[in-house]
Design goal:
- The complex is a heterodimer.
- Chain A has no helices and 11 strands.
- By secondary structure, chain A is an all-beta fold.
- In chain A, β5 and β6 form a beta hairpin.
- The mean pLDDT of chain A is 97.
- Chain B is mostly beta strands.
- Chain B is built from no helices and 11 strands.
- The mean pLDDT of chain B is 97.
- Classes of the chains: A mainly beta, B mainly beta.
- Chains A and B meet through β4, β5 and β10 of A and β5 and β10 of B.
Chain lengths: 107, 120
Amino acid sequence: AIRITQSPSSLSASTGDRVTITCRASQGISSYLAWYQQKPGKAPKLLIYAASTLQSGVPSRFSGSGSGTDFTLTISCLQSEDFATYYCQQYYSYPQTFGQGTKLEIK
Amino acid sequence: EVQLVESGGGLVKPGGSLRLSCAASGFTFSSYSMNWVRQAPGKGLEWVSSISSSSSYIYYADSVKGRFTISRDNAKNSLYLQMNSLRAEDTAVYYCARDHHDQSYYFDYWGQGTLVTVSS
């Protein structure tokens, strides 16, 4: 199975900050990567797919980049509602695998 | 509005069985692959199983292969997960999730989840 290493595991930031979360795949996955946001007690929400395509309705302050093995999720200007846990997922091959998550907390 | 509503979770003893259901509405269920994804308490997400729109393609995580069976009834707009030989490590919230498009393998709509607890 393809391993996904996500970093950092936690991150403290303030509203208005720019933050970046990274995922690294154990082998090349082209652009078959998605990003999700999960708030406590809620289901995950799709933010980005195909590494950089914004899901309908997701604010433009979210962006994704990368291909091959290295990927980033950037939130350009943090809002209060962005404090949550973020996961990446590779869907290049079965089994689809997720990163271990990044908990974004208020500083 | 797309809705996915899971049911069937609960407390079960090790070695027991449980059947989860997911009722879908607000979209043409028969046109989409569907999935089960689970999350152990305080842990990350783990993909469990997928089934294509016509049930032609079915996949399982190694951790559940031979114990869990995914199925669907397109006439009833429903997805199922039959879970047998349950273990403590199967304890998790189980989410039903829709592929963004058939066999896209990433998930655009998720249910609220149903909690399965395996304990004696």
